[in-house]
């Protein structure tokens, strides 16, 4: 898990470095209208975000099953776009950085922790298979139990992040905007 977290941090920094600063920022009235629209559809949005998060985690976990470099590729695909997105939001013109951070951090940190938990289950299988190739006998029941627990915990964290994204993040942004 520490290896995934380190690679994710590296990918985030690389994405941030390669990203382009945003040049199109909505006006304050446009932001207020969009915020009230998001608040009005929070329940429906939560279901969609949970489905999206779990499907992205599943796709990343499938990508991580590639031999040798799978977990690294999946982690990189997860971190690099977020770094570029952060750069476009934080450096955007006329957008206060506190609001940009409020849009990313409250749900983004647990969301990426959930993705990392899901990737961790696949990484454990990689280490077990590498050990089996070197003659060590893997503890398959233990691997299955820990892998399933890691996947379940990842799905739970992604669900919690979706609730934060749809209910708490708009409330924080509303407070920062004075609504």
Describe this structure in words.
The protein has about 180 residues and is an all-alpha fold. It has one domain (about 1-15, about 25-175). It is built from six helices and no strands. The protein has helices at about 1-20, 30-40, 40-65, 70-90, 95-135, 140-175. It is elongated and about 65 Å long. The N and C termini lie far apart (about 40 Å). The model has no long low-confidence stretch (mean pLDDT about 75).
Count of discrete domains: 1
Structural class: mainly alpha
Q: Approximately how much beta-strand content do the residues carry?
A: under 5%
Distance between the termini: 40 Å
Taking Cα atoms only, what radius of gyration do you get, to the nearest Å?
A: 19 Å
What is the element string, with H for helices and E for strands?
A: HHHHHH
List how many beta strands DSSP finds: 0
Helix content: over 70%
Task: Provide mean pLDDT, rounded.
Answer: 75
Overall geometry comes to elongated
Q: How would you characterize the largest beta sheet?
A: none
Low-confidence stretches: none
